[in-house]
Design brief:
alpha/beta; Immunoglobulin-like; 18% strand; globular; binds alpha-D-glucopyranose
Length: 745
């Protein structure tokens, strides 16, 4: 299928129902909420705070209630998750319509990177730095899921993470707060559309609030301990960006933060979120995280867990049943006021009115629409477009890539050449009754691209794990017959994701040994690395002539990889996480402090290890292109900036190579002296620009006091007078233009 112009694609897909929610209508919703509240018993109110998983699939330790349907008919359940499809959701909604007040259910699902059409894992998408592409991905996902009865997704995950051992890095947007905040905003807009209640939109959920990505040792669910300053400056801004995008819900995180589990952390949920940020949506716990506070040890039983969570500001209980089992008694015991419960119920009912579920509970349960949306061919085009923009070119010696479409014989080798489902990564949605195995494998993508003109040979070579070398001989034999070898290696897709932290983040098994054997044939080898996290692959990095990092690219993986390998798309992505040279370096991130003894070079092991320098294999913001770009003519409209002024910065970028391409121009700042130490460099803006061969563009950035600000020792958000280096470049290390300016009183 020919690809179509991406802007046309956006128009086709992001058609929004023009229903302006006027202020009057919002007022009407509030009045309607109050009128329903006035009719509710305490038991019915508590029912709204109770969320169960359907028994179809479990994304946590499932409890099977034989009487789930009768509880719903009695109005004792406010929401279901993991219930998919127009028919199944309609069935459960009908049960809710038998309740006394006919309050509709919310249907939630982890639509993280696609529904039937699977998009690249979010970490891969973040490497596109393409906010339109990222919004499109969420838009298509919302269009498909909302056609299948779902009206709430537990996404975007906006946890900043600096530790590639943590399996859930695959779900986020990497290590940088500025980029992560921009992406959080784009994803919320993509999922929620322009107005609440649009038929092709979902309520989004900013998760996991908060600090979950900073788990000690990169171990999932582990403790988090950090200063309030670091929490406010590094980890909370993407959540604030989601709130600014009017994200409908938040999810509290499993971890304890500074000694208190987030689910029972009043400072997080009431002081910061509902207080300072004046957040008016609702907070759902993570799976049984209310009950898990007993295990944490800050409460002794379910009664205390419910008290702690409700007091802290957690509105809905996912799967633990502690609200259902204890809140009424807590009210009778005067431990919890009805007003607290009323606040939680109002927040939830308000969303149900906004979605239009009281007007039409079956609004999202339309089988004809489901069929249409789940088979819309433009969705595959969108998936392919986003996927190719997520592929990072790490190495390309002697311009081995792009390959010629006239290559006579190609050997496609490796354990990830033929598998389909692997390309979906973790947190894909297995839609019951729907062919969610729709994936173009890497083999199929190559055949689609050059199968008619090239001879393509195959050998698996080895498994992803284990040390069985039996397949090496065949792989070497196949390689010897080819003009070029493509080797696809990496992790298994379930080696990253929830509860998938790894203590050693190297390419598993003997896959790099297979590469060594293939290189010994003297044939040129292109290496494709598939993973849900940054991996360590020093042998490959040093010896392979060409490397592309494809993450997990989803339904159109094979086609997108072939587009890049054969030059139908010039790779433009750049890394949003630092790639370490050893697991032992982790956590390793670009915007670190200078310390009093920074290493001067590789051999200076002072602020390093005696056995390893602290420099990464690939830095934040790194990624190559088939073409080359020249940076020139840096201009600042002033060198002294007052706190109420804007600094205008311009630079000219020229495509000096042989391919049309896109460059992600990055702007970094270094605050030379602060009242507290400041990072050696910080991303403060970026622009992704397309340039034809020989074309130049002058781009401009604006710097204001907000971009110079940080939380000082008193936790005040301040911009302090002093000098700043401004750096513009192709990565956090590849600085092409530099100047200095001063912020004056
Ligand atoms: C899981 C995850 C959370 C997900 C929820 C529902 O444990 O932590 O991200 O949304 O449960 O599946």
């Amino acid at each position: 299928m020919k690809s179509i112009n991406r802007h046309v694609l956006y128009i086709i897909i992001s058609i929004t129902i023009s229903s302006q929610t006027t202020q009057a209508q919002k007022k009407t919703n509030e009045q309607r909420v109050d009128s329903v509240m006035s009719l509710m018993t305490l038991e019915e109110k508590v029912g709204q705070l109770n969320q169960y998983s359907d028994d179809l699939i479990a994304t946590g330790p499932i409890t099977i209630d034989a009487d789930k349907a009768s509880q719903i008919k009695k109005g004792q359940v406010g929401s279901l998750l993991n219930c998919m499809g127009s028919e199944r959701t309609r069935t459960w909604q009908k049960a809710a319509m038998q309740s006394r007040l006919k309050i509709p259910l919310l249907f939630a699902q982890d639509v993280i990177h696609g529904y039937k059409t699977t998009f690249p894992i979010p970490l891969a998408e973040s490497c596109s730095w393409d906010l339109k592409a990222i919004e499109l991905s969420a838009r298509v996902s919302a269009t498909e899921a909302s056609a299948s009865g779902i009206n709430w997704t537990f996404a975007p995950m906006v946890d900043i993470c600096r530790d590639a051992r943590w399996g859930r890095v695959m779900e986020g947007a990497g290590e940088d707060t500025y980029l992560g905040s921009k992406i959080a905003y784009a994803r919320v807009k993509g999922f929620q559309g322009d107005k609440p209640g649009e038929i092709n939109s979902l309520m989004a959920c900013a998760k996991h609030f908060a600090g979950y990505g900073a788990a000690l040792g990169g171990r999932d669910y582990n403790s988090v301990d950090m200063s309030e300053r670091q929490l406010l400056e590094i980890y909370l801004p993407p959540f604030k960006a989601a709130a600014n995008a009017h994200v409908a819900t938040f999810m509290s995180s499993f971890n304890d933060l500074n000694g208190l589990p987030s689910t029972g952390n009043r400072h997080l949920l009431r002081d910061i979120l509902k207080g300072n940020w004046k957040y008016d949506g609702f907070v759902v716990s993570d799976w049984s995280s209310i009950g898990e506070m007993i295990t944490h040890g800050n409460v002794k039983d379910g009664y205390e867990a419910a008290l702690c969570a409700m007091t802290a500001g957690c509105d809905m209980d996912m799967e633990s049943r502690n609200y259902k089992n204890n809140l009424i008694q807590l009210v009778k015991d005067k431990k919890v006021s009805v007003s607290l419960i009323d606040d939680a119920v109002k927040r939830i009912l308000h969303k149900k009115f906004e979605l239009g579920l009281f007007d039409d509970p079956y609004k999202f349960c339309n089988t004809e629409r489901e069929q249409k949306e789940l088979n819309d061919p433009t969705h595959a085009l969108a998936a392919r477009d986003v996927a190719k923009r997520s592929i990072v070119l790490l190495k390309n010696d002697n311009h081995l890539l792009p390959l010629s479409k006239n290559t006579k014989t190609i050997a496609f080798i490796g354990p990830l050449v033929k598998p389909k489902m692997q390309n979906k990564g973790f947190w894909d949605v297995e839609v019951p009754g729907i062919d969610s195995a729709y994936v173009v494998s890497q083999w199929e993508g190559l055949v689609n691209k050059v199968g008619k003109t090239s001879t393509i040979l195959y050998a698996k070579g080895c498994n992803i794990e284990g040390n069985n070398r039996d397949g090496f001989a065949e792989a070497v034999n196949v390689a010897k017959q080819a003009d070029v070898v493509i080797l696809s290696i990496g992790e298994r897709r379930d080696m990253s994701g929830e509860a998938k932290s790894r203590s050693i983040i190297e390419i598993p098994g003997i896959q790099e040994e297979l590469l060594k054997e293939l290189l010994a044939t003297g044939k040129p080898v292109v290496v494709i690395i598939n993973a849900g996290r940054p991996l360590v692959f020093n042998y490959t990095a040093k010896n392979a002539p060409a490397i592309i990092y494809t993450w997990w690219l989803g339904s159109e993986a094979g086609n997108a990889i072939a587009d890049v390998m054969f030059g139908d798309y010039n790779p433009s992505a750049k890394l949003t996480m630092t790639f370490p040279a050893s697991t032992g370096q982790v956590p390793l991130f670009y915007n670190h402090f200078n310390t009093g003894r920074p290493p001067k070079n590789d051999s200076d092991l002072r602020n390093s290890y005696i056995d390893l320098p602290i420099y990464p294999r690939y830095e934040f913001g790194y990624g190559l292109s088939y073409t080359s770009f020249q940076y020139s003519q840096l201009h600042l409209n002033k060198k002294k900036l007052k706190s109420n002024e804007q600094l205008e910065v311009s630079a000219t970028i020229t495509n000096t190579g042989n391919y049309d391409g896109e460059e992600i121009v990055q702007l970094y700042l270094h605050d030379l002296v602060g009242s507290i130490v400041r990072p050696v460099t910080e991303l403060k803006d970026f622009k992704k620009i397309a340039l034809k061969v020989g074309e130049s563009k002058t781009i401009t950035f604006s710097i204001d006091a907000e971009k110079l600000s940080f939380f000082n020792q008193e936790l005040k958000w301040v911009a302090e007078p002093g000098e700043f280096d401004i750096m513009i470049g192709a990565s956090s290390k590849d600085i092409q233009l530099k100047d200095r300016f001063e912020l004056v009183e």
